[in-house]
Amino acid sequence: MADLRRKIAPRLRLRAVGVVHSPYAEPSDLPPPAFAPPRFFERSVGTIEVFPEFAEALDDIEGFSHIIVLFHFHRAGRAKLKAVPPGQSRPRGIFSTRSPHRPNPLGLSVLRLLRRDGRRLDVSGLDLIDGTPVLDIKPYTARDRKTRIRTGWLRKKGA
Amino acid sequence: MADLRRKIAPRLRLRAVGVVHSPYAEPSDLPPPAFAPPRFFERSVGTIEVFPEFAEALDDIEGFSHIIVLFHFHRAGRAKLKAVPPGQSRPRGIFSTRSPHRPNPLGLSVLRLLRRDGRRLDVSGLDLIDGTPVLDIKPYTARDRKTRIRTGWLRKKGA
What we know:
Two copies of one chain form a homodimer. Chain A is mainly beta.
């Protein structure tokens, strides 16, 4: 197995392409989505700053209403295989949660793109803390929008 | 700038948590989404195998209709800041495309979860080649589903 693993999946090294500017200094400044006041995230705004050497890669993004931001959960503690989500009574498999305590500390947020100013993207829907390293930015397309979804243990409240 | 970068964003090392089993052996076996026959991807099925040491992290995922798979574009060539998408006439900023040739070769697919059998997930909507290293699996939730989207240069054809 170990040999297969090395063959299939050599370790991957990533670098930040930008950084998040956010009003939230600490993870505890952000409510879990299931417990956020109504419209909390719609009103939550900030800026994604892309480093100068990657600025050109942002061209044409202004035509998209939403972007997918992949980021490093840089404040996550050690990885867990199970965790008790906020408001839940029992542990859930980490791949069925959006917890930061993942085997690979990769996070994903779909944000509304309000404005591009050079290498700065003003966004809403922000659920990221200040200083979060940005690893990738992708356009949100019709293929990312799924209808008739089931959301398991999240039900209505946690969705 | 270099000092700031090192402070904000130390390099991140990732490891595969699983691997894709797919009927597509080569990237050229997959049509670009804009040129796929109707319902091509709905009928495109395969399996995500999670390695034994991460199997427990899959618990509770069977309640979700869709999963987000983050993967390594392990066959991507060198990174580009701009690329001409299939069927397009001019280069676009790479962050406004889903091209594999990204500064960090991270890919994202939203797949329909058909069945979980232990540490194997049967999926449809598959647009990944055989042997793709899987880095993370997340549940697709209502917060990932955006309405009234604009998709820039993709327009109707490329969405």
